[in-house]
Each structure stands twice: as structure tokens, then as C-alpha cells.
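Re: the 620-residue chain
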Amino acid sequence: MEISPDTPVAAPRPRWVQWLCGAENLVVVLLLTAMVLLPCTEILLRKLGGRGIAAATPIVQHLVLLVGMLGGALAAREHRLLALSTATTWLRGRPQRIARVFSHGFAAAVTAFLCAASVDFVLASQRLNKILVFGIPVWTVQLVLSVGFGLVAVRLIWGAASSWRGRLGAALLAVGLAVFAWRCPVDPSALRVPGLLVLGVATVLGAPVFATLGGAALILLWSGGETIASIPLNHYRLAVNPTLPSIPLFTLAGYFLAEGGAARRFIALFQAWFGPVRGGPVIVTVLVCAFFTSFTGASGVTILALGGLLLPILLAAGYTGRKSLGLLTSAGSLGLLFPPCLPPILYSIVASSSTQTSVRMEDLFKGGLLPGVLLMSLTVLWGVWRGAGGAEVMRPRWDSKAAWRALRDAKWELLIPVVALVALFGGFATPVEAAAVTALYAFLTQAVIHRDLHIVRDVPRVMTECGLLVGGVLLILGVALGFTHYLIDAEIPDKGVAWVTGAIHSKYVFLLVINLVLLVVGCLMDVYSAIVVVVPLLVPIAQAFGIDMVHLGIIFLANLELGFLTPPVGMNLFLASYRFKKPMGEVTRSVLPMLLVLLVGVLLITYVPWLTTAIPAWWK
């Protein structure tokens, strides 16, 4: 995850700070290593007839909590907490510095309250005296919530400015807000609207997403006289969800592939086999981007990792700079519906845990196969139809030797989807174990077989990057679930069902409204927080209209995939602007044709349910 490129330029870190950062990185590496090895060992022992490792499942679940909070602290340390607004990119000078100090100071105050709420939660848990494993009390692991939020708060203040004056201003603002809320002289209910307005200003000026969602939850709970300890409680419940460990593990597999030589070998393979075909460069771009997005979870890694490799191929084939830019930006999220992509996993977790509905991850992946192929096919057809005038004469000739050589070079990477799918759907491994096997296999292919990643120099760096991304995502998800808890407690979903069913009587009109709403949500929120916040509100209404839950999930995810390209704040637009060093306006214009093409695909997915329901019905 990226933050706007307006972060203050840091001075070289003192040696003791470098040592501390290295120690933090090492802890993340060790935690992720344990998350990979424990499930793999469990599978092996089970096959050998053994009893496995005692309490391996709860250990892995709590390792996710540790990785998530420490990874969030790393993201704050590196100024890479995701923000919705990029206002500070067009502000300059003193206004920019003031905006940064205010947004970071406000976010630090929110995080400090989350830290205090976590302390209350841990103290309450301590009184229950539950044991995790080997005599270790659960509350000692939950303590990482308080430590993590405390570290993030301190680092938000430190990152507010490059000068001590700016940091002091952010600290004073955070302390002032905390004291005011603690010793509030007026009825908190009277401060709900003003508090939310100030939160909105901080968000516009660049406050991180987790602070926006966490701040909204805090303000609503505090002004309603409810305990704010429910936020860390819901954060903890999400982190130890039995399926959630598959998210960091599949992400780790994607990072090994993206940072190794897999991208280069896949591009060479598809270029050798499809390059001579009309529209070959488009096919290569779509296939490679879809593959990597399915493993990196539409996190932007695809554009950042592959953009520099694929852009020269498109330009050399005669495609204009604008067409190439639009195609690469659009293809950066095409694999979102394919296994083992992270958003469908999270959707199944949220839909099943926050509503009285069971949505199996396996069914979502089965239901997303045809819609995913449809969106890829539309992208290829558009690229072929809009191909460059000179692309026909510049197509390379078929070279059978080069094609088979490329296939031989990429044979180990080609088996990665097979490993993931067989482990996921084969019935001999849980989703978490399948994710661990996939991560281990990706590591072996890139670090042992091909040796693209040096085990000592590169692998820890890649695992640290993965931990940072996972931490940033889980930080958002945890506080977003606290916000969702308030909405459910206030019976917002029930009121929404009553209002929508009273105002809309046609299922198809409702589906159109869903598309319009989700397009707005997709361009204003990242996919992970959108799932946590919107799904519990949407599922009860869709059930009232008799919509199939797998179909609803694919509609939801396909719309959010489109939201990555929707102005003004589609994430892929920012990432492409950053990666290719192009103005936002130019990137936005380049994706408009593809936006319309993919919109046609989303409407087909919405109004032709067979595309989604056929494979799950057949493959039971």
C-alpha cells in the first residue's frame, strides 16, 4: 500500500534507530516464517499418521494478530499508511505543512484512543484468565493491540513533519483532543456532528484510512454513551478468524513471485507463445497482470512490479503511449475474481461472520471464474480492436524453439496455480494450509530453484514488505469492523431493508442501484475497508430481494474492481501516475475507454446470473 508521495524527507537514521528497525523487521520475518511452517508441518504429520502440532490452528490465528499490529507499526514507520485524499500533493509550502500536521495530529489522537480502548479490552480479558497454549494466557498476546496502536500513534506524530516544531504541533494537537474528549465539558451527543465534520476535514487533508474509520467508530460510540472497547474487541475477533491467516500467506506467495524472476519468465513465455498473434502484446499484458493480481490481491503490486516490464513491449509493438498507459492501468486489477485473490476470501469472512449468512470462499472462487474470464476477454478484444496501426507489420514470427524454451524456463511458476488450486479444492488441506503450501512453494521456486532471491539478503526484505502491506490492510480492517459493529448495533441494516424494499419493488432496479452505489464506494474507499463496512449493510437487503449470495458477492467484487479505475480517487490511477510519472489527468483520460468496456462486463455479470451460478451449481 502506498501513501501520497508528499512524506517529509527523513534524515539518515541514527545507528540505534537502524538497529531497532532491523529488530522489528526480523520479528516480522520470524512470525511469517512460523505462519508458513506450522500449517505445512501439520499437513505432513497428518499424512504420516501423526497427531500434528498441539493447538497449531489457534497459534497461527494469533500470529496473524501479531503480524498485523507489528506490520501496521512498520507501515507507520515508513510513512506508508494508506490515505484516501491526496490534497497535500497539490498544496505547497506552509499550507501543505499545516495540513500534514493537522491530519497526522488528529490521526494520532484517534490512535491514542484506540490504544487506551485496547488497554481496557486487555484488562477485561485478563480477568477471564483464558489460556492460549503451553500455559500462555491469551491476554499476553492481545497486549500487542495496545503496543501496536501506541507505536502507530508515536510514529504518526514523528511523521507529521521533518522539523521538531511541526512534530510538537502535531503532538500538542493530539494531546489537546485527547484531554478535551476525556474531560468533555458538554454532553458528548452534542459533539457528534462537529466531531464527524472535523474528522472529514482531517481525511481530506490526508489522514490515513484506518484513522478515518476508527475515528468515525470512536465518535459514534463515544457520543452515544457506549464503550469504545468494542473496537479492539472486534479487531481481535477479526484477526483470529480461522480463515484470515490465508490472506497474509497468499500475499506472501505473491510477493515472492513479484520480487523474484517470475514476472520476467512469464512475460517471456506469453510473449513467445502469443506475441506472433494479432493483439499479442495485449494478451500478454492481460494474462500476466491477471496472474499476479490473483496472488497480490489487487494491492497495486501488479502495476508497480510489472509496469516497467510490460510498457516497453506495448510501445515496441506500436501501441501509443496513451493506449499502453490505459491498458496497463486497467489490467492491474483484472485477476481480482480468481483464486487465491484476497478480496473474495475477505468477503466470505465478513459476509459469514457479520450476517446470518454462510458464503463459502470456495463457492465465491468458483462463481468468479467465468466473470473473471469475461472481463479479461473484453479487455483483450478492446486491445485488439484498438490496436496500433503498425502493430500488424511489427509482429514477431513464430519461433518454436524459443517458445518451448520459454515454457521450460517457466515450468515451475506454471505449477503455482495448480499447487494453490489443488490444495484449496482438493479436500486434503484447509484454506490456511493451502495458503501456507502455496507460499512455501513460491519461496522454493524463487529462492532455491531459480535463485532469483538471495536467502539472506533478499528474502527477509521481501517478507518485511509483505508484513508491512498486511499490517496496513489489517489495521484498516480491524477498525472498520468496529465501525460496522456500531452500524449493526444501531440497526442500520434493518432500517435499510425496510426503506429499500418500500421504495424499490423490482429486483432489477435494485441491482442497478447496487451498481451505481458500488461504483461510488469503489472509487472512494479501498477494496478491503469497503468489504468490511458495506457488505453487512448490503447482504440483508439483497436477501430480501432473493438474490443469490454468491452472485451478490461477484457483483460486489466486480464493481469494486471497476472502482480501481473510477475518478477521482481510483487507486490504480494514483499508482499508475506514480509508477509511470504521468499527471493524474493524463492517466484518467487514458483509462476512460477501458472503463466503459469493463462497465459493460460488470452489467453482464449483474444481469446474467448464469455467468456466476453455473460453475458452483455444476461443481459441488
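The longest strand covers residues 131-133.
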